[in-house]
């Protein structure tokens, strides 16, 4: 039951960044230490399910009238073109940026997920870097939680 709760909370957190999945995961692990790796898996999978929706939204963002209107502005178009120039033909740079964002949250992963979709980053690169980055992030949360519990 705890697995499904963490999975659902993680999907919600991916869609609505005000929900703190790290705090939820820390509490869940403290309540069920034997289920640690299952909970990490649930948090990672849930986050990626939610981030796929952000990625897909980025791929289709130009269909939204307000985005289309915003991209007509020279400054916004120039910014998107700069990101496109940085990413195009540089898969390692793109993968590195996505991995850093997924593992640290800097820049915010929801933003980079949308940008990845807008820039048409291959889905498999988005998924691999996201799964590895989010998994590493949640392993760090669990390690910190278990260390803290050990001190108490």
TL;DR?
This protein is mainly α. The protein is built from 8 helices and no strands.
Could you please describe the fold and organization of this structure?
The chain has one domain (2-151). The chain is built from eight helices and no strands. The protein has helices spanning 2-15, 21-31, 36-59, 65-70, 74-87, 91-104, 109-118, 123-151. α1 packs parallel to α3 (36-59). 35% of the residues are buried. Residues 22-142 form the VTT domain. InterPro entries: DedA_domain, VTT_dom. The chain crosses the membrane at residues 36-56, 92-111.
Count of alpha and pi helical runs: 8
Shape: elongated
Q: Would you tell me the structural class of the helices and strands?
A: mainly alpha
Largest sheet: none
Q: Kindly, what is the distance between the CA atoms of the first and last residues, rounded to a whole number of angstroms?
A: 27 Å
Helix content: over 70%
The residue-averaged pLDDT reads: 89
Q: How many β-strand runs?
A: 0
How do the SSEs run, as a string of H and E? HHHHHHHH
Uncertain segments are none
Q: How much of the residues is beta strand, in percent?
A: under 5%
**How many separate structural domains?**
1
- Evaluate the radius of gyration: 17 Å
Mind sketching the topology for me?
Layout: H1 2-15, H2 21-31, H3 36-59, H4 65-70, H5 74-87, H6 91-104, H7 109-118, H8 123-151
Highlighted features:
mainly alpha
